[in-house]
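Ops channel
N.P.: pipeline sanity check, posting one input/output pair.
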């Protein structure tokens, strides 16, 4: 069993994050007196939380996924997150296009590349 400091160091997290996740119902480490002790199962759960966060899930969704939901429920959550992630990627790609445009125009609104980005935004809105 590992201490909170050991787990925090292993995952590169501040200890307060692990305490917060515990308060939010994501982790339930054992206690020896007043000290938290983390098992290998807890380490796997921390890894699962980090993977889900990397995929863009919020803590409430992660808690729902980790509390015994059916495979169908998890698949529906994953589908919704994929849609949100695709939309975020599209916005990031549009921002990258703007930054890579290297427009020589002094007036931004006169730039054809920028105008194209604006028109695409107007079509989506």
């Amino acid at each position: 069993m590992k201490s909170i400091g050991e787990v925090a160091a292993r995952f590169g997290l501040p200890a307060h994050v692990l305490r917060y996740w515990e308060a939010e119902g994501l982790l339930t480490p054992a206690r020896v007196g007043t000290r938290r002790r983390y098992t290998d199962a807890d380490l796997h759960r921390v890894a699962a939380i980090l993977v889900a966060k990397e995929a863009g899930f919020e803590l409430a969704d992660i808690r729902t996924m980790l509390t015994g939901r059916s495979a169908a429920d998890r698949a529906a959550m994953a589908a919704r997150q994929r849609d949100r992630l695709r939309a975020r990627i599209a916005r990031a790609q549009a921002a990258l296009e703007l930054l890579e445009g290297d427009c020589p125009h002094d007036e931004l609104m006169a730039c054809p590349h920028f105008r194209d980005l604006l028109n695409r935004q107007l079509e989506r809105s």
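N.P.: looks fine end to end. The CA atoms of residues 7 and 43 lie 7 Å apart.
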